[in-house]
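Researcher: I'd like a candidate sequence for this fold, 158 residues long. If you have to choose between options at a position, lean toward the conservative one.
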């Protein structure tokens, strides 16, 4: 470059582009790991909030409600007892909370039972769920049977 001219030479431009390319290649896996972690944390939070909602609804309506889990299809939804005298038949709740919720196929979701029931007296079935991403930590969701209180642990709690 001549004296007094402002700007970048071609070599300087190539050097800057090369450095930016290397930084992008190095940081991409870190962002992917962060995204997996966010998906797992969001799923845990969503299920925790949904259990509180379903428990409150079961108490207010004096009907048995439950959250159903379909681990094979990565789905969960809320259902309600069709008949209180025969609480073995459940129908999907017909509102925005009863809609089918899907979670990412990259999330590993394990639960002991295919559903968790919530009763009009405020109690609930015991629930233990393990959630993890392909490269993330394992989170454990548990609830107390008597109160339905949900706790989230940042490790696998057996």
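Model: Candidate sequence:
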């Amino acid at each position: 470059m001549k004296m007094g001219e402002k700007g970048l030479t071609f070599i300087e431009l190539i050097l800057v582009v090369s450095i930016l390319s290397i930084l992008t290649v190095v940081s991409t896996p870190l962002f992917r790991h962060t995204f997996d972690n966010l998906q797992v944390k969001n799923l845990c939070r969503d299920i925790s909030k949904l259990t509180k909602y379903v428990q409150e609804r079961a108490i207010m309506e004096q009907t048995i409600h439950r959250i159903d889990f379909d681990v094979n299809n990565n789905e969960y939804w809320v259902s309600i007892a069709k008949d209180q005298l025969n609480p073995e038949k459940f129908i999907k709740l017909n509102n925005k909370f009863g809609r089918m919720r899907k979670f990412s196929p990259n999330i590993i979701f394990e639960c002991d039972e295919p559903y968790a029931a919530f009763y009009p007296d405020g109690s609930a079935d015991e629930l233990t769920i393990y959630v993890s991403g392909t490269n993330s930590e394992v989170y454990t969701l548990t609830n107390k049977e008597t109160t339905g209180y949900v706790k989230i642990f940042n490790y696998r709690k057996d």
